[in-house]
């Protein structure tokens, strides 16, 4: 049985001091992570700004390429890496340093394999877009941006796992400082490459790649620098020669966590791109697509907070389950959900109050501003559901049940949201607002499903027992003996029940 904390059991409601302590613990991680996420958003916004200064064609081509690379590349890498969250966080909680560092190496290997087909897609962006009927000039510009973005795939194979690796150990402030420092040089890099060297679109793409490379070097340097002091955290393997045999052993079980995690994130991420495509089929497509672009940039900005909260509560839940403290894991989950609800209310409030002025930050077009203002309250209601839904998915990942989140997102967005959006926008002629009502319906279905799983269908003691099995596995021998994949697989998957909802 998982060890219980005698001061906090299922029969006793947590005290106010325990709730406050958990709030401090959670937000001491979430605030720096939010800053890091906002820096990533700012980096993209700066790139779009410089593309816009180059001209309408460059902006259209760059925007097309950014959308394509998000769908086919970055969403996949971020999604796969999220499968590392339960293993690293639970391993840290149980003080299994070998599993912690070995899982990082395994995930890097998984991402290196994943970028091979992704690279093939990026190289052939021009052919794909022309086949889909896109404009030749825009496609040519998009293909150029995509080709020069290829090295970013390699930087992300290190950047994304390092973020999870450090966050699972509650090391978030150094990540924030690394992000701030790297992004500080992003604007000067764009000025030098785009204006001084007159490289145009390739210069914008190269600046983004170099900014991410700077971030990887800074974060990797921090781990290396603190390796001696943090030995009890990062494990011995991080400062030793990579054990290839140890990396391959258990790769399959980690993939069984990574693939559902990837699907859960990508299914939601892709749906926003589908909304943009559907907007192009409305009666006034130019107006609708322009408004969609502003609204999606706004949701991306707001998403930085719940995304940070989800990642941090995943780490907190995993840490406590790995340490055999199921009811502290439950407390972390409840505090995070309460925080997400407050954030959702804040988002609804400001989107309603500033709906008439917000679009003016992006455009002077009166029609676009009016259309954005009419939909902003609906978008705010979407965020009211999105905040607890995203946080709940983080909790589910922390309990090593990513398939549950993937199923919820699939059914909510594609069997609820898509039919509602198409029906309202095109059949019932609600137009642009109908698309966002479809998103609202998807978020409502999603948040109720996620809350049901977390609040009703989660047995926290059973999850702690699973964490004990997950992190109690023996490492593969490094003395040349056969690696028993079947035994490790059984341990990692807890006899095939790791995804079941208790």
UniProtKB/TrEMBL annotation:
Cellular component per GO, a single term: membrane
Keywords: Membrane, Transmembrane, Transmembrane helix
Location relative to the cell: Membrane
GO biological process: xenobiotic detoxification by transmembrane export across the plasma membrane
Chain ranges passing through the membrane: 29-51, 63-84, 104-131, 175-197, 203-225, 331-353, 408-428, 435-455
Domain of life: Eukaryota
Chief location category: membrane
One Pfam family it belongs to: MatE
Membrane topology, from the record: Multi-pass membrane protein
GO molecular function (one): xenobiotic transmembrane transporter activity
Keyword match Zinc: no
PANTHER family registered for this protein in UniProt: MULTIDRUG RESISTANCE PROTEIN
Annotated family: Belongs to the multi antimicrobial extrusion (MATE) (TC 2.A.66.1) family.
Protein name: Protein DETOXIFICATION
Species of provenance: Quercus lobata
């Amino acid at each position: 049985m998982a060890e219980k904390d005698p001061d906090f059991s299922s029969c006793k409601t947590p005290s106010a001091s325990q709730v406050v302590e958990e709030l401090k613990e959670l937000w001491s991680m979430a605030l720096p992570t939010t800053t890091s996420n906002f820096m990533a958003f700012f980096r993209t916004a700066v790139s779009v700004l410089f593309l816009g200064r180059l001209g309408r064609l460059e902006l259209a081509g760059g925007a097309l390429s950014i959308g394509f690379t998000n769908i086919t590349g970055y969403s996949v890498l971020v999604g796969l890496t999220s499968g590392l969250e339960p293993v690293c966080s639970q391993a840290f909680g149980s003080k299994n340093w070998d599993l912690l560092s070995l899982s990082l190496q395994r995930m890097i290997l998984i991402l290196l394999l994943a970028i091979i087909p992704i690279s093939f897609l990026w190289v052939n962006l021009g052919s794909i877009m022309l086949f889909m009927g896109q404009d030749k000039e825009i496609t040519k510009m998009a293909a150029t941006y995509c080709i020069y973005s290829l090295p970013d795939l390699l930087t992300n194979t290190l950047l994304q796992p390092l973020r999870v690796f450090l966050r699972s150990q509650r090391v978030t402030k150094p990540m924030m400082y690394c992000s701030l420092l790297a992004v500080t040089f992003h604007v000067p890099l764009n000025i030098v490459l785009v204006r001084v060297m007159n490289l145009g679109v390739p210069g914008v793409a190269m600046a983004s790649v170099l900014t991410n490379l700077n971030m990887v070097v800074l974060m990797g340097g921090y781990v290396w620098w603190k390796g001696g002091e943090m030995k009890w955290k990062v494990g011995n393997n991080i400062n030793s020669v990579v054990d290839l045999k140890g990396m391959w052993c258990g790769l399959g079980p980690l993939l069984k966590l990574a693939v559902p995690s990837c699907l859960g994130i990508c299914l939601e991420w892709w749906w926003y791109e589908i909304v943009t495509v559907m907007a192009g089929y409305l009666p006034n497509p130019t107006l609708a697509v322009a408004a969609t672009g502003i609204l999606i940039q706004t949701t991306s900005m707001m998403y930085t907070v719940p995304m940070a909260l989800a990642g941090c509560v995943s780490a907190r839940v995993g840490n406590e389950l790995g340490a055999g403290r199921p009811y502290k894991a439950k407390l972390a989950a409840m505090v995070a959900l309460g925080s997400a609800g407050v954030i959702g209310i804040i988002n609804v409030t400001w989107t309603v109050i500033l709906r008439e002025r917000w679009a003016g930050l992006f455009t002077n077009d009166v029609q676009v501003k009016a259309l954005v203002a009419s939909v902003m309250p609906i978008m705010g209601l979407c965020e009211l559901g999105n905040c607890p839904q995203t946080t709940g998915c983080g909790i589910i990942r922390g309990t090593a049940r990513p398939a549950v989140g993937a199923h919820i997102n699939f059914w909510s967005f594609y069997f609820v949201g898509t039919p509602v959006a198409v029906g309202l926008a095109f059949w019932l002629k609600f137009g642009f607002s109908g698309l966002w009502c479809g998103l609202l319906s998807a978020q409502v279905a999603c948040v109720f499903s996620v809350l049901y799983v977390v609040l009703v269908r989660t047995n926290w003691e059973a999850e702690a027992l699973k964490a004990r099995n997950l992190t109690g596995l023996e490492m593969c021998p490094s003395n040349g003996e056969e690696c028993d994949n079947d035994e490790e697989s059984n341990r990692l998957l807890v006899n095939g029940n790791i995804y079941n909802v208790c």
